[in-house]
Amino acid sequence: MSDIIRVENLRKVYQLGKVQVAALRGVNLRVEQGEFVSLVGPSGCGKSTLLHVIGGLTPPTAGRVTVDGTDLGGLNDAQRTELRKQKIGFVFQRYNLLPTLSVYRNIALACHIAGNRNGASRSAMESIVKMLGLEARLDHRPAELSGGEQQRVAIARAVVNHPKILLADEPTGSLDTENSELVMNMLLELNHQFGQTILLITHNPEVALFSDRIISMRDGHILETAADAAGS
Amino acid sequence: MRTVLSATAVAIEVLLIIMVVGLTHGMLQESARRTQGVGAEIMVQPQTTSLFMGFSGAPMPAQIAGKLAEVEDVKAVTPVMVQASSEGGITLIYGIDPASFDAVSGGFHFLQGRGLESPDDVLVDDVYASSRNLKLGQTVELLNQNFHLSGIVEHGKGARIFLRLDRLQDLMGSVGKASVFFVKLRDPRRVNQVLDRMRQILPGYQLRDMQEYVSLMVAGNVPGLSNFITVIISLAVAIGLLVIFVTMYSTMVERTREIGILKSIGASKVYVFRLVLRETALLTVFGIAAGIGLSYAVRAVVGMLFPSLPIEITAEWMVRASLIALISSVCGASYPAIRASQRDPIEALAYE
Fold first, then answer.
1. Disulfide: which of A199, A219, B157, B284 matches B329 by Cβ 3.0-4.6 Å?
2. A136 within some domain
3. CA-to-CA distance for A149 and A142, rounded, in angstroms?
4. What is the pLDDT of residue A79?
5. Residue A139 falls within a domain, yes or no?
């Protein structure tokens, strides 16, 4: 299979006041299309920064990042935004739903931003909502939902436009075991049913076991790759 | 709460504009309508006189009326002395010759009392009488003199207060003088021909068709009034702009995280910018609707408390005030919108 994500010697340095902090120090990574990869490591090791660079939320300082054939290094902010809109979905630990909007409108917002306002997006939305078991919660506000439900809404919003890549930053970090398993099963189903490429960050080794491959990071470097984690 | 305050600021902005323009426009138009209500087709004034009677004294010999009456097609002429009175606000007093004034105007419609029989008699119209609670027969102080209220007439014929011409001339030290002549024609369609003939007899005088006079009674022809209106509108715009700026700026700071969320799901700078402006526009539309509603409410209250203070709310100025409010709101929200659109998504997502 072809690489949908290719990271070569990626460096990312943040300027915090007068201090430069190197978050990524030469990262190399390849993710194939349809692969489910977990990224594990201690806090501050650069996992989220790597996800943000791949997702186009921040530009790389040096090195090369290619997402679905597009070199992010050559893109400006508007072009990276466009790439994110078309090809990448994000799921965060804190759900990041808009509190004033209903579940339906939170999901529809992603369609609106992507410019999909037709019947096709409605049918896509219906199937995603059904798959994630959110039919009865569409009119509720996020504050009226459990953590697990909120995260499922966040997943629905992330995948409703059928992005090629789903980047999940600690999606189970705020959930109990039961809800964590529920959410991970849904991600797995997305991966199996739709061939969704997923790159997931987690602290939890049990969560990482749901993926095809586990990659460890420390101090801005990739340490090791455990192939076929789910099958092991 | 912040949204309500912003909409209120927009409403006040719209209210201020509509009220200031409505008041000036209303007073001018109402004055023009009353002058037209005299019933004359032509007005004759001295060359240097102001369009706004009452500020120019009485420099014309009253005998000119005789000359004007001799012009072909003229039915009646009446000399009027116009004097501004400052008792309880500026009000015009007409000094009239009752007989010729009746000939031009068709006579007053008396609601109470009788005409100006004695030099100390005064007539007022019903609006003036009700606004000052005047009763027939009571003493009315005008120009530092006491007058006897002999009659209350229906409003709409020139001034709100009428004295005998000779009495007013005497009081103002302008015996035998007049401020304006009102000319009634046998055939109103011949106004241009009559004006041409009069110009030959009275070169150097201002001779106006009444329709022309009415059309000239606009704020732009009142010295300083346009500037005054511009200053008030500018102040209203500044208030609206500043309130919207502060509101939207603080809203955008408070909603930093939401901006980060939008950007993380692919919202572009333009999308965020337009979103902020759309919200501002929506808020402004509510403010405009409230402002227009308030304007009608204020007009109703002013009409009850001060019947002689007309406020004319026109569709044109409602549209203008709405556009001014909308533009000032958009200008006020532009900087917060630009700041929001330029937010770094990662920093915004980390914002607590």
1. B284
2. no
3. 9
4. 92
5. no
Could A85 and B266 be called an inter-chain contact, meaning their C-beta atoms sit closer than 8 Å? Answer: yes
Which chain A positions have a beta carbon within 8 Å of B260's beta carbon? 96
For residue A50, the distance in angstroms to the closest alpha carbon of chain B comes to: 12
Within an 8 Å CB–CB cutoff, is residue B262 touching chain A? yes
- Give the per-residue pLDDT at B61: 85
Question: How many domains in chain A?
Answer: 1
Residue A231: pLDDT above 50?
Answer: no
CA distance B14 to chain A (A): 30
For chain A, list residues whose CB is within 8 angstroms of any CB belonging to chain B: 52, 55, 57-58, 77-78, 81-82, 84-86, 88-90, 92, 96-98, 109-110, 113-114, 157-158
Which of A67, A76, A90 should we substitute to test contact with B (largest number of B Cβ atoms within 10 Å)? A90
- Give residue B214's identity as a one-letter amino acid code: V
Q: Is the pLDDT of residue B310 over 90?
A: no
The structure tokens 């965060």 sit at: A92
Decide if A142 is inside a domain: no
CATH number at residue A35: 3.40.50.300
Average of pLDDT values for B73-88? Answer: 86
Q: Which domain holds residue A190?
A: 3-98+163-226
Mean pLDDT of B305-318: 86
Q: Contact at 8 Å (CB) between A113 and B262?
A: yes
Q: A156 to each of A25, A138, A169, A196, B252, how far by Cα in Å?
A: 33, 11, 15, 13, 26
Which H or E run includes B241?
A: helix B225-254
Distance from CA of residue B261 to its chain's centroid? 52
Chain centroid to CA A144: 24
- In a domain, residue A115? The reply is no
Q: Please, what is the average pLDDT of chain B? A: 88
Taking CA–CA distances from B342, the nearest residue in chain A reads A77
User: Which of A52, A82, A84 best tests the B interface by mutation, with the highest count of B CBs <10 A?
Assistant: A84
* Residues of chain A neighbouring B269 (CB-CB closer than 8 A): 77-78, 81
> Contact A85/B265, CB-based, under 8 Å?
yes
Question: Is residue A46 within 8 Å of A23, Cβ to Cβ?
Answer: yes
* Alpha-carbon distances of A7 from A28, A32, A53, B133, rounded to whole Å: 5, 12, 10, 90
Q: Where are the domains of chain B?
A: 2-26+224-350, 47-204
Confidence of residue A229 (pLDDT cuts 50, 70, 90): very low
pLDDT for position A120: 54
ipTM: 0.87
The Cα diameter of chain A in Å comes to 52
